[in-house]
Amino acid sequence: MHRRSMHREERAAFGGWGPGFGPRGRGGRGGRRTKRGNVRAAILALLAERPMHGYEMIQELESRTGGLWRPSPGSVYPTLQLLEDEGLISGEQSSGKRLFSLAESGRAEAESQRTPPWAEITEDAGEAATHFHDAMGRLMMAIRQVMHAGSEDQKARALEVINDARRRLYGILADDED
């Protein structure tokens, strides 16, 4: 059988989408997607706490959202430049990096925010989602350590644990009535 037609038959078994896609998977419209945060508001809120470097702000936002939101340098740095052009923040070279701080007008705008912008991200995602990123990071670290330092027997046992976890996770979805 031709490879393409075999692939179509495999997808047909999953409603034409294939495993992991469709209305509830990565490729569909019904899946939960983390909403993007307001970079401008987040920068002002962070700088209301203390002066920071751009990369430090990115790390801080990722940390405060449990890994759910990590704004890209391509959104943070232009926003910093815009805020500086508007006179809301100022930046000065310090140890080869640009350290940003709030101007008085920026402080007024930051204080007008009722809740921190990163709180919206974590509230919308739900409590469990905020912990997934950290848990996945710790799991990957453990897997790397077993693969690097474990004996062949330990590696085989670790693979069994991983495969069992995958089956159990799919079992959770199979029990879901929604």
From TrEMBL:
Compositional bias segments (type: Gly residues): 15-25
Region (Disordered): 1-35
Residues annotated as domain Transcription regulator PadR N-terminal: 43-111
SUPFAM superfamilies: Winged helix' DNA-binding domain
Record field: compositional bias (Basic residues): 26-35
InterPro entries: ArsR-like_HTH (IPR011991), Tscrpt_reg_PadR_N (IPR005149), WH-like_DNA-bd_sf (IPR036388), WH_DNA-bd_sf (IPR036390)
PANTHER family: TRANSCRIPTION REGULATOR, PADR-LIKE FAMILY, TRANSCRIPTIONAL REGULATOR YQJI
Official protein name in the record: Transcription regulator PadR N-terminal domain-containing protein
